[in-house]
Write a structure and sequence with these properties.
Layout: H1 3-17, H2 26-32, H3 36-39, H4 51-59, E1 88-90, E2 93-107, E3 114-131, E4 135-144, E5 149-158, E6 164-171, H5 185-188, E7 198-207, E8 210-217, E9 231-239, E10 243-252, E11 259-270, E12 273-287, E13 290-306, E14 309-319, E15 329-338, E16 344-354, E17 365-374
Antiparallel strand pairs: 1-2, 2-3, 2-17, 3-4, 4-5, 5-6, 6-7, 7-8, 8-9, 9-10, 10-11, 11-12, 12-13, 13-14, 14-15, 15-16, 16-17
Length: 375
């Protein structure tokens, strides 16, 4: 199938379904000046939204607000707390969910082009607070595609002034910039995506503009531990209303196959544009060729064209082996994100990958349409 045909089919589908976005992204924190803990139950971001985060997504992000009880548009000037539903069942119990349905078209050189409905991804969240604002039992379960898989299950205890916490169980380790795109180089090559969690403990501090998070986990990616080595991960950030800077590190002691990762990331707001940048350096010992050193970077700009509309432009770079010349890869992305009303996002985007000419898969072109329903 020709590329022009793929584009035509995707644009036709977009017109029939109406436009797309993703809310669990750091650019929103840069745009608002908030920390991750303001909008997410998990202090390091991702997963279920807090009551404030849910209200914000319904009242400040959507192009239009609908009354959940009638489906009709709310009049201009309606109070911000009017007709909102946060998933809060009572003071002790709250639920949430994310569902993403995707249609993608891919063109790989010297191979047939494809257009496919990708497996739908869905998560369910349960937040139980036996002691309000102090003790939380949290569950994040992927229910699709395939059989149910647990992503996070932990107990979290906050100090009385909510300046510090400790949690234990299964969790995403605190490392780097936690963007929604798990295929981004900075997520994929570090193994710190939403598809990878680990069992252990984590502690954190929230002191004014400062945030610090440190974890000790098995380092087995949620699998069975096979040695005494552990993974030590940390994330430190300084947040101001218009900018932020962060440092992160992770070391997985695994005998002769130790892995060390360091990351620096930053955010900056310039008018209606929110910028993100991240660099990751990885060292793997015990590979068949000895020590392997890798680099991955990301630069992203998000332009708020109008209420409910965001244009995202991203450049990524990946060097899979710093000792080998001309094996580097790049990826360019352009994504239009649209929130027509609360609980609904659409994304329409294109990605172009550049790699070594001999590897066709590294030079693919992708077009995609996503519907993200959430609460």
């Amino acid at each position: 199938m020709k590329t022009g045909t793929i584009i035509a089919q995707l644009l036709l589908t977009a017109a029939l379904l109406a436009p797309a976005v993703s809310l669990a992204e750091p650019y929103l924190a840069v745009r608002t000046g908030y920390k991750c803990v303001v909008c997410h139950v998990n202090p390091t971001g991702g997963g279920k939204r807090t009551e404030f985060g849910s209200i914000y997504s319904q009242t400040a992000m959507a192009a239009e607000r609908l009354d959940p009880a009638t489906g009709k548009a709310l009049p201009a000037g309606a109070p911000s707390d009017a007709a909102v539903w946060t998933g809060k069942l009572n003071d002790y119990l709250a639920i949430g969910s994310d569902l993403r349905a995707n249609l993608s078209g891919t063109r790989v050189p010297n191979s047939p082009s494809t257009v496919a409905f990708d497996p739908t991804r869905a998560q369910l969240y349960l937040e139980v607070k036996p002691i309000v604002d102090r003790l939380t039992i949290y569950l994040d379960e992927r229910v699709a595609p395939g059989s149910a898989t647990n992503r996070e299950t932990y107990a979290m205890l906050w100090f009385a002034n909510r300046s510090a916490y400790v949690k234990a169980g299964r969790m995403f380790v605190p490392f780097g910039l936690r963007i929604e795109d798990d295929n981004a180089f900075i997520r994929q090559v570090t193994g710190t995506s939403f598809n990878s969690s680990d069992d252990g403990v984590e502690g954190g501090l929230e002191l004014g503009p400062w945030s610090a998070h440190v974890s000790v986990t098995n380092g087995a990616g949620g699998g069975t531990e096979t040695n005494r080595g552990k993974q030590f991960s940390s994330l430190f950030a300084y947040v101001q209303p218009g900018w932020r800077l962060g440092l992160s590190s992770s070391t997985n002691f695994n005998g002769a196959a130790d892995r060390r990762m360091q990351s620096v990331f930053a955010g900056l707001r310039t008018g209606r544009v929110g910028w993100l940048a991240s660099g990751v350096y990885i060292t793997d010992d015990g590979t068949p060729t000895g020590r392997l050193k890798q680099w991955a970077t990301l630069v992203e700009g998000n332009y708020e064209a109008a209420r409910g509309h965001n244009l995202k432009l991203t450049y990524e770079y990946y060097d899979p082996n710093s000792d080998v010349k001309e094996d580097q890869r790049e990826r360019y992305s352009a994504v239009w994100e649209y929130v027509p009303f609360q609980f609904t996002q659409f994304r329409l985007g294109a990605r172009k990958s550049n790699g070594i000419p001999q590897n066709n898969a590294q030079n693919a072109t992708e077009l995609f349409l996503q519907w993200h329903a959430f609460f």
